[in-house]
Design brief:
Length: 238
């Protein structure tokens, strides 16, 4: 309970900080975007220690983004797709291979990020029509799992850290490619931790290193439509 309260407090502080930062700037012109596209999820944790393309899955996402200062934007995103992993293939060790455990669960997430664009690619006089960017934020993900190996909440906090490229192929349309790691704060994304499991041959194996929290990863390709808003200057009082 103490850990859950701490995570809630941490997420509240992070979201408050992001909101304050994004609200403290006012540019002369602002843009708002809505978009969506395909996404892919991957995982590293107790079953898979390194990024493995064999565990890549397909999903989808939609988002709303707002530019609040030159080079800075905020992004609210909803994404969904499956996350999977297996002891087979690139096993951690011989015991993991013999354990023969796997999972394949549906994941839904909501995240809020602040992004920084390195190039002013939206300007008519811009030297490039694309820009690399980085982002950070906070969010929650939901995996509604029936056969839990321990007691834990279905909703968990995660911190997204992203890099990507935006390509503005017209004044109103933009292509986005993003890759992001999702830092989680629990060790049951794969439904295993320091517990033990009995395989089909009734042999008991240690599940994993319980000191490590799991990560999952998001890769997305999307297209967005831009709505421009120009702030008119306030007339001087006589």
């Amino acid at each position: 309970m103490m850990l859950i309260n701490r995570l809630k407090s941490t997420s509240f502080l992070i979201l408050t900080l992001i909101f304050v930062v994004s609200s403290s700037f006012r540019g002369f012109s602002q843009s708002k975007e809505i978009g969506g596209g395909i996404s892919s999820f991957n995982y590293t944790g107790d079953l898979v220690r390194t990024y493995n393309l064999a565990n890549q899955t397909i999903g989808g996402h939609i988002f709303y983004s707002k530019t609040f200062k030159k080079g800075w934007s905020s992004k609210l995103m909803l994404a969904a797709g499956r996350i999977k992993g297996s002891d087979q293939g690139k096993s951690v060790d011989a015991l993991s291979s013999a354990r023969n455990y796997s999972f394949n669960e549906f994941n839904t997430e909501v995240s809020f990020q602040v992004q920084y664009e390195f190039l002013d690619f939206r300007n008519d006089r811009a030297i490039a029509d694309f820009t690399p960017y980085i982002g950070f934020g906070a969010g929650f993900f939901l995996i509604n799992r029936a056969d839990k190996n321990a007691t834990y909440s279905d909703i968990q906090l995660m911190l997204p850290l992203s890099i990507g490229i935006k390509y503005n192929f017209s004044p109103l349309w933009t292509i986005h490619f993003e890759f992001a790691g999702r830092k989680t704060f629990y060790d049951y994304l794969d439904n295993i931790s320091e517990e033990e499991i009995t395989d089909k041959r009734n042999s008991t194996f240690q599940f994993d290193n319980w000191n490590d929290n799991d990560w999952y990863y998001f890769a997305g390709l999307a297209i967005s439509y831009t709505f421009w808003q120009v702030d008119c200057p306030v007339p001087l009082s006589k």
